[in-house]
Design brief:
By secondary structure, the chain is an alpha/beta fold. It has seven helices and eight strands; from the N terminus they run αββαβαβαβαβαββα. It has a single domain, classed as Rossmann fold (3-Layer(aba) Sandwich). The longest helix has 17 residues.
Length: 200
């Protein structure tokens, strides 16, 4: 039985114990734990091939979608964190946030591709843009990019104190700041929720 010490271990654990159990559902699409484990492993390997290393951040611009969790778990398997940027942000602000994160890869929903391309032109760092279409169900750039990789978990050793999420503040009193949330903080939240009488 896989001990859950990081977010990636959640997928590993349930893919081993209940591979055909429903993991995610969104706008009519469903994904089992087996599929989530496979696709996030492919994504991890694709990210690593683009220079994503342990301690890196992987950018994301998009609304609620299954792809968000594929990217998050894939980043976690690569020892990286996900950095979700506000899809309402104008190009200039996005350029600053992406530059600050130094994310080598940015996964973006097709509806925000144009503003991200504009941000890419003025950003202080270089990064690869990979687009996805939530309605394509596998027929987009992200799936093609991932599909080139083996669906084998890289099984990197990641400390529970490593950053799992880089979340930017609103910047109401200055430039937005990137707040690092470690794997351990999420796992503690899950444990606390499991002990909440109102939820049992």
């Amino acid at each position: 039985m896989t001990e859950i010490r990081t977010l990636a271990d959640i997928v590993r654990r349930w893919a081993a114990e209940s591979p055909d159990r429903l993991a995610l559902t969104c706008t009519g699409r469903t994904v089992t734990y087996r599929q989530l484990h496979s696709r996030s492993s492919q994504l991890a390997r694709a990210l690593m091939s683009e220079g994503v290393e342990p301690g890196s951040d992987v950018g994301y611009v998009g609304k609620n979608a299954i792809e968000f969790y594929e990217v998050w778990f894939g980043a976690a398997k690569a020892g990286a964190a996900i950095a979700p940027f506000n899809w309402r942000s104008p190009a200039a602000e996005l350029a600053e946030l992406i530059s600050d994160s130094r994310a080598p890869v940015l996964v973006v929903a097709v509806e925000f591709l144009e503003v991200v391309r504009r941000a890419q032109q003025s950003a202080r760092t270089s990064f690869r843009v990979v687009s996805f279409d939530p309605a394509a169900d596998g027929g987009d750039e992200l799936s093609a990019w991932m599909g080139e990789k083996d669906p084998v978990d890289p099984e990197l050793t990641v400390d529970s104190g490593a950053t799992a999420l880089l979340a930017y503040t609103s910047g109401t009193t200055g430039a937005p700041k990137g707040v690092q949330h470690p794997h351990a903080s999420f796992l503690q939240s899950f444990r606390s929720l499991s002990r909440e009488p109102a939820l049992t």
